Amino acid sequence: MAERQETSVMVSIQEILRDAQSREEQEKVEAEQRARAEEQRRVEELRRQQEEEEARLRAEEDDRQRRAFEEQRRQAEISAMQEAAVQRARAEAEAQARLAEMAARQEHERHLHALSQDKHKKRLTMLLVGLGLFFVIGGIGAGVMLKRSADEAAALKAQAAQLQAQIDESAAKQQRLAAELQNTKDPEKIAELQAQIAAEQQRNQQLQQQAANPTKKPTYGGGGAAAPGPGPKPASGKPCNCTPGDPMCSCL
Q: What ranges do the domains of the chain cover?
């Protein structure tokens, strides 16, 4: 009787041990499954973040290349306008010099013909003196015209350089304001910065128009730069945190 009880106890203990071992193995399998699922989720999250970062870098590189291309094109246009102004001034100076030379040659030939027909020494002397004075005056006039043309070309070049410096200064100021706008969350400060950026954009456009037509006097709407008006406000009444110049912004 005691042996049967002892055997029954041993069998019960073995069954308990088997159940415990089975539960332990089941829990181990479930833990491994959870670990693999967590690792898979982490890998997918890292892949997603990497893809988003690559897309952001590609967008920034495309934007940088676009701005560089626009800057090169603008520089090429300004250089072409400056070169055209210099060439125009040089061509005008050369044409005026040729006209002066032709007039002097014709006058010289006319005086020579008159001298060949004149037999009086006094008249010959007076004509020679007059001819000398004509050449002197003609040379002075041609020199004055050449200097005036050169001065005009130099003034146009200096004006273009000054406009370029103002355009660069305005673009740099816009970048500084845009950086400050991205770093602020104050609605009043955001509106103020947006107004300043809009004013600088208007000023930059006026400077570029003046650079495209250097002979036209600049107009700033009532004598002076326009005062910055209130910045754009979103339709919802909330502060607008869009980047200035963003074509996808719904509140600019």
A: 15-200
